[in-house]
Amino acid sequence: MRKRPGLSASLPRAAALAAALGAQAAAAQAACPIELAVYSEAGTGAGIDFRPGTTAAVTNSFRMVLDRGVVLDGVVMWSQEPARPLGMLMRDCPEGDVTGEELAACTVWEGVIYAVDARGEVSPLPAQGTDAPRTLILADLGRALRLSSVADAAGPPSAPGDVFALSGCQE
Fold first, then answer.
1. Residues of the chain whose pLDDT is less than 50?
2. What is the pLDDT of residue 23?
3. What letter would DSSP give residue 33?
4. Which helix (H) or strand (E) holds 166?
């Protein structure tokens, strides 16, 4: 039986891809706080727009736009031990107080978000108030979206890969 490479094997490849996307990030190189950063994925054109966090527990929030206008809402919360930025992408969640079951039903991805700097070093996503990293890796995003409920009557949108390059800064 063949062993599948784990996350530790895929991170160096993702970091190499991230470094290759550095040219795209050069245009967005000027200092931009993470809460105003805009990222794009090369294969599908999917985009991420960050916004300031909404509570002490939600350190970052963002919106992901896939093809055909599919919009997912995202939040980042830091876990306790080990401390990591855990991202969640949701679609069509109910407003107000929701149960864990309702939240699980509308969540299409959960995972760790990594940042890659100009030297190709991988670290956790920074919190608000710090400069946006050149590249983000949303661990296992593509697979999760392919298996999720984001499909509609026209079928599923194109699932992006896991690597997003800084492409701009909101004014």
1. 1-9, 15, 17-28
2. 42
3. B
4. strand 163-169
Specify whether the CB–CB gap between 62 and 72 falls below 8 A: no
Q: Which long-range contacts (CB under 8 A, 24 or more apart) does 10-18 make?
A: 11/114, 11/122, 11/137, 14/114, 14/116, 14/137, 14/162, 14/163, 15/116, 15/120, 15/121, 15/122, 15/137, 16/120, 17/163, 18/116, 18/120, 18/134, 18/135, 18/137, 18/163, 18/165
Going from N- to C-terminal start, the domains of the chain cover 7-169
Q: Summarize pLDDT for 127-158 with one digit per residue, the tens.
A: 788 899 999 999 999 889 888 877 665 566 78
- Give the Cα separation of 133 and 114 in Å (integer): 9
Burial of 109 (0-12, 13-18, 19+ CB in 10 A): buried
> From the CB of residue 139, how many other CB atoms can be counted at a distance below 10 Å?
18
The dihedrals phi and psi of 17, each to the nearest 5 degrees, come to: -65, -40
Q: In the structure, how many helices (H) and strands (E) does the chain have? A: 4, 9
Residue 149: what pLDDT?
A: 74
